[in-house]
């Protein structure tokens, strides 16, 4: 059996840019898999790829199909859920609990979902199953126990989430919250980024999460609300340095990094959670501007790349990149040299729902994806892939190739330690977040030596930001600045989604806590940016306003009428 699979891999696991074989006769239906994990030759080697190939040889059709699916589930526990969550799982997969979903469909992974008020991705987050670290750790432990009963159980279940930090952060309580990617871009120090993301990776691992769908490698060349501060900035080379730092940090902690959204969502201002954005740039411009951060992530060793629902007119017009062989196999693998796992963006998003779940999953696999994320109906996706495998419309070599990549990533992560929950929000981790946030604070208008406030301060903001006002108030008080309800120097905060109408004309200082574009319309004598509303960012801002720290950041995006910084250096 192992010899047969080795021959299949030799013919089916293509070199970069080569199309996998498409002959339906290249393999027959494999025998049924054993009921549970069986001993394999993987015990003789520690090489993840060799272990993956050996395990693939033991898997039947149903197990192969399950390994390329990574849906979400309803419920905050693996085996016990509310009646509402059970109903959600029944509609999604014909089961009651997340554990039953894993067992029935022999899943390769599960994504944990959730959203917050300013989250631009909430459109494809139909539920939430994350609350606090203890609950997440209990959930992931239960999910792994269910996966351990599968034929592929010797390879750890992939449990992922979108922990980007900033506006897209699934677990927000009890963890160290890093400043946004745009803040890291303003800081411009990959070493600080790497240290902060290593801390973040350690905390994810402590909760039982081994895949982070981050960092965002999109270059912010448009004023995109859906990407915005999730990007490291508008300069592809500088953004690439930051992507590399984030990848190295995460994976040093045993968490797979996922560089996204290929081929570059920052080159369109439209939102793929609503429609199919069009990238009208030339291939040459995309190669020069959009793809360098992905290359940087690949060179840093990223284990995964996420494909995006984007219509790249210069390469494969009318075909979303998720379903484009030209983009995923010829460009991403052939030209950029990526050999790891390609995972789709959410298949429950509108551009992917132009086909039924089964046909969409098959199309995505044939294009070059290895992992199907968030199918809108797990039963239909599973049945569609299984039927296509058996009738030959999905070449067995392509599925074997995809599963081998998924299992290779699993075995790469298999021996990473799982820290205790006491590793969360440690002084060292908070210090790493503060260092990155402090390096990001930027003066876009006003003299650097006159930023510090004199006398009491009144903190105001646009609506809905009481929590952030309170955080800055507390940080200013701790820094020795008196905060009053009215009459002091007005420091006005603006954040995600705010526009000119959310500015305050009489504010002495206006601070942008997301993309800084709105500052171009502000009248304040002093304009600052933290690019983030995290606790670390508010502490860094307070230190600058108290005169205890400088503002060394440079805006990583151009703001009309303002310089990147008014500070020297």
From TrEMBL:
Region named Disordered: 12-49
Superkingdom in the source lineage: Bacteria
Record field: catalytic activity: Hydrolysis of terminal non-reducing N-acetyl-D-hexosamine residues in N-acetyl-beta-D-hexosaminides
Record keywords, A-Z: Glycosidase, Hydrolase
Residues of the signal peptide: none
Keyword Hydrolase: yes
Keyword set includes Hydrolase: yes
Chain ranges of the Glycoside hydrolase family 3 N-terminal domain: 96-408
EC nos: 3.2.1.52
InterPro entries: GH, Glyco_hydro_3_AS, Glyco_hydro_3_C_sf, Glyco_hydro_3_N, Glyco_hydro_3_N_sf, NagZ_Beta-hexosaminidase
Record field: compositional bias (Low complexity): 20-49
Family in the record: Belongs to the glycosyl hydrolase 3 family.
Name the UniProt record assigns to this protein: beta-N-acetylhexosaminidase
Species the sequence originates in: Micromonospora gifhornensis
UniProt lineage: Bacteria, Bacillati, Actinomycetota, Actinomycetes, Micromonosporales
